[in-house]
Write a structure and sequence with these properties.
Elements lengths: L4 H9 L3 H16 L7 H18 L15 H11 L2 H15 L5 H7 L5 H15 L4 H20 L1
Length: about 160
């Protein structure tokens, strides 16, 4: 069966958010190519929004067959950095990373925070800390050390 382009992401999402990330990665790469056509960026943003919506809504919901492709928050953060849309990044960190945080996304999170205004980044990191440090102190200390290292590198330039 051939699916309409605008519905393809929904088909992939039936297998889990992780199944849709390679498609988003391909669309991001295509939209950045010199041969990109008008409307590619809008399609990429709409696709990323749809993935985030699904990620926010799917907490422990089984799929047909009971298996899902594991989603990778670091990969999504990197893709959102390539898209360079602060609103999408903010929504993903606020709605998904904060809820599911385990520290594996620290490197990617630090690398993308420059897209956000300082006050917004501060608010998100504060919420992340308040919601998670009781259980994940080591992960949050790692995040803070990465943020400090990044700030020192910028200062020394």
């Amino acid at each position: 069966m051939i699916w309409p382009k605008q519905r393809f992401i929904d088909v992939l999402l039936q297998a889990g958010v992780g199944a849709a990330l390679p498609y988003l990665e391909d669309r991001v790469r295509d939209s950045m190519a010199p041969s990109a056509v008008e409307g590619d960026r809008e399609h990429v943003i709409a696709t990323a929004q749809r993935i985030i919506e699904e990620w926010e809504s799917r907490v422990g919901h089984p799929t047909y067959g009971g298996e899902r492709k594991e989603a990778n928050r670091s990969e999504m953060l990197t893709l959102l950095g390539a898209i360079a849309d602060a609103t999408l990044l903010d929504r993903f960190v606020d709605g998904v990373v904060t809820r599911d945080y385990d520290g594996t996304e620290n490197e990617a999170l630090v690398a993308q925070l420059h897209l956000l205004e300082a006050a917004k980044a501060s608010d998100l990191l504060t919420r992340l800390a308040l919601d998670n440090t009781a259980d994940l102190t080591v992960a949050y200390v790692d995040l803070l050390s990465r943020l400090v290292a990044q700030a020192v590198r910028k200062f020394l330039r």
